[in-house]
Amino acid sequence: MKLPEKTIERLSEYRRTLYNCLSNGKTHIYSHELANLHSNTAVQVRRDLMLIGFSSMTKKGYDVKELIDLISRILDNKEGQNVAVLGMGNLGKAITAYFNGKRSKLNIKATFDIDPEKIGTLQSGVMCHNIDRFEEIVKQENITIAVITASPNSAPLLAEVIEKAGIKGVLNFTSTPINFSDNIYHEEYDMITSLEKVAYFVKERSLKKKSV
Amino acid sequence: MKLPEKTIERLSEYRRTLYNCLSNGKTHIYSHELANLHSNTAVQVRRDLMLIGFSSMTKKGYDVKELIDLISRILDNKEGQNVAVLGMGNLGKAITAYFNGKRSKLNIKATFDIDPEKIGTLQSGVMCHNIDRFEEIVKQENITIAVITASPNSAPLLAEVIEKAGIKGVLNFTSTPINFSDNIYHEEYDMITSLEKVAYFVKERSLKKKSV
DNA sequence: AAGTGTGAACCTCTTCACAGCA
DNA sequence: TGCTGTGAAGAGGTTCACACTT
Q1: Which of A187, A198, A203 sits opposite B187 (nearest CB)?
Q2: Predicted TM-score of the model (pTM)
Q3: Which residue is nearest to nucleotide D11 (CA to C1')?
Q4: Given this model, what pLDDT does residue A58 score?
Q5: DSSP state of B114
Q6: From the Cβ of B50, is strand D under 7 Å away?
Q7: Distance (Å) from the C-alpha of residue B200 to the closest C-alpha of chain A?
Q8: Burial class (CB in 10 A: 0-12, 13-18, 19+), A6
Q9: Is the distance from CB of B112 to CB of B121 less than 8 angstroms?
Q10: Is the CB atom of residue A57 positioned under 7 angstroms from any atom of strand D?
Q11: Residue B211: its pLDDT value, please?
Q12: Structure confidence by residue, pLDDT tens digits, A47-59
Protein backbone atom coordinates (compact mmCIF):
# COMPACT_ATOMS: atom_id res chain seq x y z
CA MET A 1 0.00 0.00 0.00
CA LYS A 2 1.61 3.20 -1.23
CA LEU A 3 0.24 6.29 0.47
CA PRO A 4 0.65 9.89 -0.71
CA GLU A 5 2.97 12.09 1.31
CA LYS A 6 0.24 14.59 2.07
CA THR A 7 -2.03 11.88 3.36
CA ILE A 8 0.68 10.71 5.76
CA GLU A 9 1.01 14.23 7.13
CA ARG A 10 -2.71 14.53 7.63
CA LEU A 11 -2.98 11.12 9.26
CA SER A 12 -0.46 12.22 11.86
CA GLU A 13 -2.54 15.34 12.50
CA TYR A 14 -5.83 13.47 12.57
CA ARG A 15 -4.44 11.05 15.11
CA ARG A 16 -3.57 13.81 17.52
CA THR A 17 -7.00 15.36 17.15
CA LEU A 18 -8.63 11.97 17.64
CA TYR A 19 -6.75 11.42 20.89
CA ASN A 20 -8.17 14.72 22.09
CA CYS A 21 -11.65 13.56 21.13
CA LEU A 22 -11.21 10.42 23.16
CA SER A 23 -10.06 12.43 26.19
CA ASN A 24 -13.23 14.46 25.86
CA GLY A 25 -15.33 11.31 25.80
CA LYS A 26 -16.19 11.63 22.11
CA THR A 27 -16.29 8.12 20.66
CA HIS A 28 -17.54 8.85 17.12
CA ILE A 29 -16.74 11.61 14.67
CA TYR A 30 -18.13 12.70 11.30
CA SER A 31 -15.89 13.46 8.37
CA HIS A 32 -17.00 17.09 8.38
CA GLU A 33 -16.22 17.44 12.09
CA LEU A 34 -12.70 16.12 11.66
CA ALA A 35 -12.34 18.36 8.62
CA ASN A 36 -13.38 21.47 10.53
CA LEU A 37 -10.81 20.79 13.20
CA HIS A 38 -8.13 20.88 10.49
CA SER A 39 -9.26 23.68 8.17
CA ASN A 40 -9.85 20.90 5.69
CA THR A 41 -12.78 19.51 3.70
CA ALA A 42 -14.96 16.53 4.49
CA VAL A 43 -14.21 15.04 1.08
CA GLN A 44 -10.49 15.22 1.77
CA VAL A 45 -10.94 13.42 5.08
CA ARG A 46 -13.04 10.72 3.47
CA ARG A 47 -10.53 10.36 0.65
CA ASP A 48 -7.70 9.91 3.14
CA LEU A 49 -9.66 7.28 5.05
CA MET A 50 -10.56 5.57 1.81
CA LEU A 51 -6.86 5.36 0.93
CA ILE A 52 -6.07 3.58 4.18
CA GLY A 53 -9.10 1.35 3.78
CA PHE A 54 -11.08 2.64 6.72
CA SER A 55 -14.83 2.78 6.53
CA SER A 56 -17.81 3.12 8.78
CA MET A 57 -21.03 2.98 6.76
CA THR A 58 -23.03 3.97 9.76
CA LYS A 59 -24.68 7.31 10.28
CA LYS A 60 -22.89 7.73 13.58
CA GLY A 61 -19.61 8.82 12.09
CA TYR A 62 -16.27 7.06 12.36
CA ASP A 63 -15.28 5.10 15.45
CA VAL A 64 -12.54 7.21 16.99
CA LYS A 65 -10.72 4.43 18.74
CA GLU A 66 -10.66 2.12 15.73
CA LEU A 67 -9.40 4.93 13.55
CA ILE A 68 -6.58 5.77 15.96
CA ASP A 69 -5.59 2.12 15.98
CA LEU A 70 -5.52 1.88 12.20
CA ILE A 71 -3.53 5.10 11.78
CA SER A 72 -1.07 3.85 14.38
CA ARG A 73 -0.67 0.55 12.58
CA ILE A 74 0.24 2.53 9.47
CA LEU A 75 2.51 5.20 10.91
CA ASP A 76 4.34 3.31 13.64
CA ASN A 77 6.34 0.16 13.60
CA LYS A 78 5.93 -2.18 16.52
CA GLU A 79 9.26 -1.65 18.19
CA GLY A 80 9.17 2.13 17.70
CA GLN A 81 12.12 4.14 16.46
CA ASN A 82 14.82 5.93 18.38
CA VAL A 83 15.75 9.54 17.75
CA ALA A 84 18.77 11.78 18.44
CA VAL A 85 18.71 15.57 18.59
CA LEU A 86 21.86 17.36 17.41
CA GLY A 87 22.32 20.78 18.94
CA MET A 88 20.98 21.66 22.38
CA GLY A 89 20.19 25.32 21.80
CA ASN A 90 16.70 26.66 22.34
CA LEU A 91 15.27 24.79 19.39
CA GLY A 92 16.81 21.49 20.44
CA LYS A 93 15.47 21.97 23.95
CA ALA A 94 12.03 22.82 22.60
CA ILE A 95 11.83 19.64 20.55
CA THR A 96 13.18 17.43 23.29
CA ALA A 97 10.73 18.87 25.82
CA TYR A 98 7.88 18.65 23.35
CA PHE A 99 8.33 14.92 22.96
CA ASN A 100 9.01 14.06 26.52
CA GLY A 101 6.09 12.19 28.05
CA LYS A 102 4.11 12.08 24.81
CA ARG A 103 2.47 8.79 23.94
CA SER A 104 4.57 8.04 20.95
CA LYS A 105 6.57 5.30 19.35
CA LEU A 106 9.34 7.80 18.72
CA ASN A 107 11.78 8.05 21.59
CA ILE A 108 14.42 10.73 21.91
CA LYS A 109 17.25 8.63 23.31
CA ALA A 110 20.15 11.08 23.26
CA THR A 111 21.08 14.66 22.49
CA PHE A 112 24.41 16.03 21.29
CA ASP A 113 26.32 19.28 21.41
CA ILE A 114 29.87 20.61 21.43
CA ASP A 115 29.44 23.00 24.34
CA PRO A 116 31.14 21.56 27.48
CA GLU A 117 28.57 23.36 29.62
CA LYS A 118 25.80 21.27 28.08
CA ILE A 119 27.57 17.94 27.73
CA GLY A 120 26.77 15.65 30.63
CA THR A 121 23.56 17.45 31.57
CA LEU A 122 20.01 16.18 31.32
CA GLN A 123 17.46 17.99 29.18
CA SER A 124 13.89 16.82 29.81
CA GLY A 125 15.38 13.61 31.10
CA VAL A 126 17.62 12.99 28.09
CA MET A 127 21.42 12.97 28.37
CA CYS A 128 23.49 15.37 26.28
CA HIS A 129 26.69 13.87 24.85
CA ASN A 130 29.72 15.19 23.05
CA ILE A 131 29.12 15.03 19.32
CA ASP A 132 32.29 12.96 18.83
CA ARG A 133 30.53 10.07 20.58
CA PHE A 134 27.67 10.18 18.05
CA GLU A 135 28.38 6.99 16.15
CA GLU A 136 29.08 5.03 19.33
CA ILE A 137 25.81 6.05 20.97
CA VAL A 138 23.75 5.66 17.80
CA LYS A 139 24.82 2.02 17.63
CA GLN A 140 24.42 1.44 21.34
CA GLU A 141 20.91 2.93 21.47
CA ASN A 142 19.85 1.73 18.03
CA ILE A 143 19.03 5.25 16.85
CA THR A 144 17.68 5.54 13.30
CA ILE A 145 16.56 9.18 13.10
CA ALA A 146 18.47 12.43 13.62
CA VAL A 147 17.00 15.90 14.16
CA ILE A 148 19.42 18.71 13.39
CA THR A 149 18.87 21.94 15.30
CA ALA A 150 22.46 23.16 15.44
CA SER A 151 23.79 26.37 13.90
CA PRO A 152 23.82 26.57 10.09
CA ASN A 153 27.60 26.56 9.79
CA SER A 154 27.91 23.23 11.59
CA ALA A 155 25.59 21.52 9.10
CA PRO A 156 28.27 20.16 6.71
CA LEU A 157 30.23 18.58 9.56
CA LEU A 158 27.09 17.02 11.03
CA ALA A 159 26.09 15.67 7.63
CA GLU A 160 29.29 13.68 7.52
CA VAL A 161 28.92 12.34 11.04
CA ILE A 162 25.32 11.33 10.36
CA GLU A 163 26.16 9.48 7.15
CA LYS A 164 28.99 7.65 8.83
CA ALA A 165 26.85 6.52 11.75
CA GLY A 166 24.32 4.84 9.46
CA ILE A 167 21.34 7.05 10.31
CA LYS A 168 18.26 6.33 8.15
CA GLY A 169 16.21 9.51 8.42
CA VAL A 170 16.99 13.17 9.03
CA LEU A 171 14.89 16.20 9.87
CA ASN A 172 16.98 19.31 9.30
CA PHE A 173 15.91 22.59 10.92
CA THR A 174 19.13 24.30 10.00
CA SER A 175 18.75 27.00 7.38
CA THR A 176 21.58 25.37 5.43
CA PRO A 177 20.23 22.67 3.14
CA ILE A 178 22.21 19.44 3.22
CA ASN A 179 22.76 16.85 0.51
CA PHE A 180 22.54 13.33 1.84
CA SER A 181 23.14 10.09 0.04
CA ASP A 182 20.12 8.25 -1.33
CA ASN A 183 19.78 5.81 1.53
CA ILE A 184 18.87 8.57 3.96
CA TYR A 185 15.32 9.89 3.83
CA HIS A 186 15.55 13.54 4.59
CA GLU A 187 13.32 16.57 5.10
CA GLU A 188 14.30 20.20 5.39
CA TYR A 189 12.28 22.62 7.39
CA ASP A 190 13.21 26.23 7.43
CA MET A 191 11.38 28.58 9.79
CA ILE A 192 12.65 31.69 8.05
CA THR A 193 11.24 30.50 4.76
CA SER A 194 7.88 29.82 6.40
CA LEU A 195 7.78 33.28 7.84
CA GLU A 196 8.85 34.90 4.58
CA LYS A 197 6.14 32.97 2.81
CA VAL A 198 3.46 34.21 5.20
CA ALA A 199 4.80 37.74 4.77
CA TYR A 200 4.66 37.42 0.98
CA PHE A 201 1.06 36.26 0.91
CA VAL A 202 0.00 38.91 3.40
CA LYS A 203 1.57 41.50 1.15
CA GLU A 204 -0.06 40.08 -1.99
CA ARG A 205 -3.48 40.01 -0.39
CA SER A 206 -3.28 43.59 0.76
CA LEU A 207 -2.27 44.68 -2.75
CA LYS A 208 -5.18 42.80 -4.23
CA LYS A 209 -7.63 44.32 -1.79
CA LYS A 210 -6.47 47.83 -2.64
CA SER A 211 -6.85 47.23 -6.36
CA VAL A 212 -10.47 46.08 -6.03
CA MET B 1 2.02 38.20 -11.51
CA LYS B 2 0.68 35.18 -9.64
CA LEU B 3 3.46 32.94 -8.36
CA PRO B 4 3.06 29.34 -7.19
CA GLU B 5 3.43 28.70 -3.47
CA LYS B 6 6.29 26.31 -3.96
CA THR B 7 8.19 28.79 -6.03
CA ILE B 8 7.85 31.39 -3.27
CA GLU B 9 9.33 28.94 -0.78
CA ARG B 10 12.23 28.16 -3.04
CA LEU B 11 12.91 31.82 -3.80
CA SER B 12 13.30 32.45 -0.09
CA GLU B 13 15.77 29.58 0.10
CA TYR B 14 17.65 30.59 -3.03
CA ARG B 15 18.07 34.09 -1.67
CA ARG B 16 19.77 32.87 1.46
CA THR B 17 22.08 30.65 -0.55
CA LEU B 18 22.84 33.52 -2.91
CA TYR B 19 23.83 35.77 0.00
CA ASN B 20 26.29 33.08 1.03
CA CYS B 21 27.68 33.00 -2.48
CA LEU B 22 28.24 36.75 -2.40
CA SER B 23 30.04 36.48 0.95
CA ASN B 24 32.32 33.92 -0.64
CA GLY B 25 33.03 36.26 -3.52
CA LYS B 26 31.04 34.24 -6.03
CA THR B 27 29.36 36.70 -8.39
CA HIS B 28 27.81 34.30 -10.93
CA ILE B 29 26.06 30.97 -10.51
CA TYR B 30 24.77 28.30 -12.92
CA SER B 31 21.33 26.83 -12.55
CA HIS B 32 22.81 23.41 -11.83
CA GLU B 33 25.00 24.84 -9.08
CA LEU B 34 22.10 26.51 -7.34
CA ALA B 35 20.10 23.31 -7.79
CA ASN B 36 22.80 21.19 -6.17
CA LEU B 37 22.86 23.44 -3.14
CA HIS B 38 19.17 22.70 -2.66
CA SER B 39 18.79 19.02 -3.55
CA ASN B 40 16.88 20.27 -6.53
CA THR B 41 17.10 20.08 -10.32
CA ALA B 42 18.52 22.63 -12.73
CA VAL B 43 15.26 22.64 -14.67
CA GLN B 44 13.34 23.51 -11.56
CA VAL B 45 15.65 26.41 -10.83
CA ARG B 46 15.35 27.72 -14.38
CA ARG B 47 11.59 27.31 -14.28
CA ASP B 48 11.42 29.33 -11.05
CA LEU B 49 13.54 32.08 -12.54
CA MET B 50 11.48 32.03 -15.69
CA LEU B 51 8.34 32.56 -13.61
CA ILE B 52 9.78 35.66 -12.01
CA GLY B 53 11.07 36.89 -15.37
CA PHE B 54 14.77 36.61 -14.62
CA SER B 55 17.15 35.67 -17.36
CA SER B 56 20.83 35.75 -18.10
CA MET B 57 21.49 34.47 -21.60
CA THR B 58 25.20 34.40 -21.02
CA LYS B 59 27.33 31.36 -20.47
CA LYS B 60 28.59 32.77 -17.17
CA GLY B 61 25.55 31.78 -15.19
CA TYR B 62 23.17 34.11 -13.36
CA ASP B 63 24.35 37.35 -11.82
CA VAL B 64 24.07 36.67 -8.09
CA LYS B 65 23.54 40.25 -7.02
CA GLU B 66 20.89 41.01 -9.60
CA LEU B 67 19.03 37.84 -8.70
CA ILE B 68 19.05 38.68 -4.99
CA ASP B 69 17.66 42.11 -5.82
CA LEU B 70 14.87 40.72 -7.95
CA ILE B 71 13.87 38.08 -5.38
CA SER B 72 13.84 40.79 -2.73
CA ARG B 73 11.64 43.02 -4.83
CA ILE B 74 9.19 40.11 -5.05
CA LEU B 75 9.24 38.82 -1.48
CA ASP B 76 9.61 42.00 0.52
CA ASN B 77 7.62 45.17 0.57
CA LYS B 78 9.55 48.40 0.90
CA GLU B 79 8.61 49.29 4.44
CA GLY B 80 9.07 45.75 5.72
CA GLN B 81 6.60 44.02 8.00
CA ASN B 82 6.54 43.80 11.76
CA VAL B 83 6.19 40.53 13.62
CA ALA B 84 5.12 39.46 17.11
CA VAL B 85 6.03 36.16 18.78
CA LEU B 86 3.43 34.71 21.16
CA GLY B 87 4.93 32.44 23.78
CA MET B 88 8.46 32.88 25.07
CA GLY B 89 9.28 29.26 25.76
CA ASN B 90 12.28 27.60 24.13
CA LEU B 91 10.75 27.71 20.68
CA GLY B 92 9.81 31.37 20.94
CA LYS B 93 13.32 32.19 22.13
CA ALA B 94 14.80 30.18 19.28
CA ILE B 95 12.84 32.06 16.64
CA THR B 96 13.48 35.46 18.16
CA ALA B 97 17.20 34.79 18.42
CA TYR B 98 17.27 33.36 14.92
CA PHE B 99 15.95 36.56 13.42
CA ASN B 100 17.87 38.98 15.49
CA GLY B 101 20.54 40.71 13.44
CA LYS B 102 19.54 39.01 10.20
CA ARG B 103 19.33 41.24 7.15
CA SER B 104 15.63 41.00 6.68
CA LYS B 105 12.60 43.14 6.08
CA LEU B 106 10.81 41.21 8.80
CA ASN B 107 11.30 42.71 12.23
CA ILE B 108 10.31 41.02 15.46
CA LYS B 109 9.00 44.03 17.36
CA ALA B 110 7.53 42.42 20.44
CA THR B 111 7.08 39.11 22.23
CA PHE B 112 4.26 38.04 24.56
CA ASP B 113 3.73 35.60 27.39
CA ILE B 114 1.65 35.15 30.52
CA ASP B 115 4.52 34.19 32.81
CA PRO B 116 5.35 37.14 35.14
CA GLU B 117 8.95 35.96 35.23
CA LYS B 118 9.27 36.60 31.51
CA ILE B 119 7.18 39.74 31.15
CA GLY B 120 9.32 42.85 31.18
CA THR B 121 12.50 41.04 30.17
CA LEU B 122 14.45 41.35 26.94
CA GLN B 123 14.95 38.33 24.71
CA SER B 124 17.57 38.92 22.01
CA GLY B 125 16.85 42.61 22.41
CA VAL B 126 13.07 42.31 22.10
CA MET B 127 10.75 43.18 24.98
CA CYS B 128 8.33 40.59 26.35
CA HIS B 129 4.88 41.92 27.23
CA ASN B 130 1.82 40.60 28.97
CA ILE B 131 -0.49 39.01 26.44
CA ASP B 132 -3.35 41.25 27.56
CA ARG B 133 -1.51 44.19 26.01
CA PHE B 134 -1.42 42.46 22.63
CA GLU B 135 -3.89 44.61 20.73
CA GLU B 136 -2.46 47.83 22.13
CA ILE B 137 1.10 46.99 21.12
CA VAL B 138 0.12 45.56 17.74
CA LYS B 139 -1.44 48.90 16.85
CA GLN B 140 1.37 50.92 18.35
CA GLU B 141 4.09 48.99 16.54
CA ASN B 142 2.11 48.37 13.37
CA ILE B 143 2.50 44.58 13.64
CA THR B 144 0.91 42.54 10.85
CA ILE B 145 2.24 39.03 11.49
CA ALA B 146 1.98 36.75 14.53
CA VAL B 147 4.04 33.64 15.26
CA ILE B 148 2.45 31.30 17.78
CA THR B 149 4.84 29.17 19.81
CA ALA B 150 2.80 28.87 22.99
CA SER B 151 1.45 25.64 24.47
CA PRO B 152 -1.27 23.83 22.50
CA ASN B 153 -4.02 24.46 25.05
CA SER B 154 -3.60 28.23 24.83
CA ALA B 155 -4.19 28.21 21.07
CA PRO B 156 -7.96 28.92 21.11
CA LEU B 157 -7.53 31.92 23.40
CA LEU B 158 -4.71 33.29 21.28
CA ALA B 159 -6.76 32.84 18.11
CA GLU B 160 -9.37 35.18 19.53
CA VAL B 161 -6.85 37.80 20.61
CA ILE B 162 -5.16 37.68 17.20
CA GLU B 163 -8.39 38.10 15.26
CA LYS B 164 -9.43 41.01 17.45
CA ALA B 165 -6.13 42.83 17.02
CA GLY B 166 -6.41 42.81 13.24
CA ILE B 167 -3.38 40.65 12.48
CA LYS B 168 -3.02 39.74 8.78
CA GLY B 169 -0.83 36.66 8.81
CA VAL B 170 -0.17 33.84 11.28
CA LEU B 171 2.43 31.13 11.53
CA ASN B 172 1.25 28.55 14.05
CA PHE B 173 3.79 26.13 15.56
CA THR B 174 1.32 24.87 18.11
CA SER B 175 0.23 21.29 17.54
CA THR B 176 -3.39 22.46 17.83
CA PRO B 177 -4.67 23.58 14.45
CA ILE B 178 -6.58 26.87 14.53
CA ASN B 179 -9.41 28.10 12.34
CA PHE B 180 -9.00 31.72 11.40
CA SER B 181 -11.36 33.91 9.45
CA ASP B 182 -10.68 34.35 5.75
CA ASN B 183 -8.91 37.66 6.02
CA ILE B 184 -6.00 36.09 7.88
CA TYR B 185 -3.46 34.16 5.82
CA HIS B 186 -2.34 31.32 7.97
CA GLU B 187 0.12 28.44 7.93
CA GLU B 188 0.39 25.56 10.35
CA TYR B 189 3.66 23.89 11.05
CA ASP B 190 3.80 20.91 13.27
CA MET B 191 7.16 19.48 14.24
CA ILE B 192 5.70 16.25 15.55
CA THR B 193 4.03 15.60 12.21
CA SER B 194 7.32 16.23 10.41
CA LEU B 195 9.10 13.78 12.62
CA GLU B 196 6.36 11.17 12.29
CA LYS B 197 6.52 11.57 8.54
CA VAL B 198 10.26 10.98 8.48
CA ALA B 199 9.76 7.94 10.72
CA TYR B 200 7.07 6.57 8.39
CA PHE B 201 9.19 6.85 5.27
CA VAL B 202 12.21 5.37 7.02
CA LYS B 203 10.06 2.42 8.02
CA GLU B 204 8.61 2.00 4.53
CA ARG B 205 12.03 2.06 2.93
CA SER B 206 13.44 -0.54 5.24
CA LEU B 207 10.48 -2.82 4.52
CA LYS B 208 10.97 -2.38 0.80
CA LYS B 209 14.66 -3.19 1.04
CA LYS B 210 13.99 -6.42 2.92
CA SER B 211 11.46 -7.58 0.37
CA VAL B 212 13.88 -7.22 -2.57
C1' DA C 1 -32.45 13.74 5.25
C1' DA C 2 -27.82 13.41 6.35
C1' DG C 3 -24.20 10.99 6.23
C1' DT C 4 -20.34 7.89 3.38
C1' DG C 5 -17.50 6.11 -0.85
C1' DT C 6 -15.58 7.07 -5.27
C1' DG C 7 -14.93 7.85 -10.60
C1' DA C 8 -13.71 11.58 -13.09
C1' DA C 9 -12.50 16.34 -13.77
C1' DC C 10 -9.54 19.69 -12.39
C1' DC C 11 -5.66 22.16 -10.68
C1' DT C 12 -0.78 22.41 -9.24
C1' DC C 13 3.78 21.18 -9.57
C1' DT C 14 7.72 18.68 -11.74
C1' DT C 15 10.13 16.66 -15.44
C1' DC C 16 11.03 15.66 -20.34
C1' DA C 17 12.58 16.93 -24.55
C1' DC C 18 14.34 20.01 -27.45
C1' DA C 19 15.24 24.59 -29.74
C1' DG C 20 18.24 28.58 -29.30
C1' DC C 21 22.26 31.08 -27.95
C1' DA C 22 27.31 32.24 -26.98
C1' DT D 1 29.85 22.13 -26.54
C1' DG D 2 27.55 23.54 -22.54
C1' DC D 3 24.52 26.38 -20.97
C1' DT D 4 19.53 28.70 -20.91
C1' DG D 5 14.32 29.09 -21.87
C1' DT D 6 10.05 26.79 -22.55
C1' DG D 7 5.96 23.96 -24.69
C1' DA D 8 4.10 19.82 -23.60
C1' DA D 9 3.68 15.58 -21.07
C1' DG D 10 3.40 13.47 -16.62
C1' DA D 11 2.79 12.90 -11.63
C1' DG D 12 0.65 14.24 -7.51
C1' DG D 13 -3.10 16.23 -5.00
C1' DT D 14 -7.86 18.23 -4.48
C1' DT D 15 -12.57 18.91 -5.56
C1' DC D 16 -16.94 17.95 -8.04
C1' DA D 17 -20.77 15.38 -8.63
C1' DC D 18 -23.40 11.77 -7.62
C1' DA D 19 -24.70 6.96 -6.29
C1' DC D 20 -25.34 4.48 -2.14
C1' DT D 21 -26.72 3.46 2.83
C1' DT D 22 -29.34 3.93 7.16
Answers
A1: A198
A2: 0.95
A3: A4
A4: 82
A5: S
A6: yes
A7: 5
A8: exposed
A9: no
A10: yes
A11: 64
A12: 999 999 999 878 8
